[in-house]
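pinned: reference chain
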Amino acid sequence: MTAIQSTLGHISIGEPVGKAELIMYPLLDPAAGESEYVLASEALDQGTLEVTEVSESGSVQNLQVTNNGSRPVLLLDGEEFEGAKQNRILNVTVMVAAKQTITVPVSCVEVGRWAYRSKRFGAADWVMDTQGRAMQMRSVSESLRSGSRAGNQGAVWAHIDGKAERLDAMSPTGAMSEMYAKHRKRLDDSVRSLEPVEHQVGAAFMSQGRLMGVELFDSPNTLKAVLPKLVRSHALDSIDPRTDRREQGADTIDDLLASLGSLESEDYPAVGLGQEFRLHGESLEGAALVVEERVVHLEVLGA
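pinned: its structure tokens
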């Protein structure tokens, strides 16, 4: 039995919360303990994490991450970092060991800027929208087969441009962040309506009958800290008029969880600590970071 299958075997599904625009099914694990790592936002606030360009001239596809702290730091797939020469998102979930500096793969989400705004990056309080992450996941999985973790940069820019136009959130620099700023109140309303419950380690999201995705972590404190970022990601898709509305039964979440452990998978040494798994299904794309047989982050999104 794989670590992913073993982890899923401990998960139960809580009562759904929210409304038709965005519903969350809590994923529960009463046996889950506290995490032994720090999240990127917390480490940046503490001054123990530095995210910078790889050099003075920079590289669109890579950033440098230095963990000066005494505990590992977790950075999430799709998490946006703002500043330096242009805003970027992470292409994969990464755990950086204590006292280590590594290079991480990223994609640009601000096409119209290549000039320093600051020397270091800060973390945004969202991750890339769900549709964009699923698209990126496919691209990165394809790249990994040839030894790279590059996304399809042109597709990322086109996705942001189209979504921003539909959401009336165009930016002078083509910044993805403008969509989150423009619709901040509506997204934060979703955050307030989807509070975590006891023992919650993950969430499955549905919108207007459409399964949007599953996010799972190894600890309730991790889920509690990152849930607002994830809700904003899913909520941005839920208000996009182009989002597909598919009729799906209430048993979809049970069926999905039962099938996740048997998705087609490939694994690779991770960037930083652990092993990275790429998951594929008929209409699903997924990825997981496993560190010392512990599934730190599992994400499966509707493709």
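why pinned: The chain is about 30% helix and 35% strand. The longest helix spans residues 220-238.
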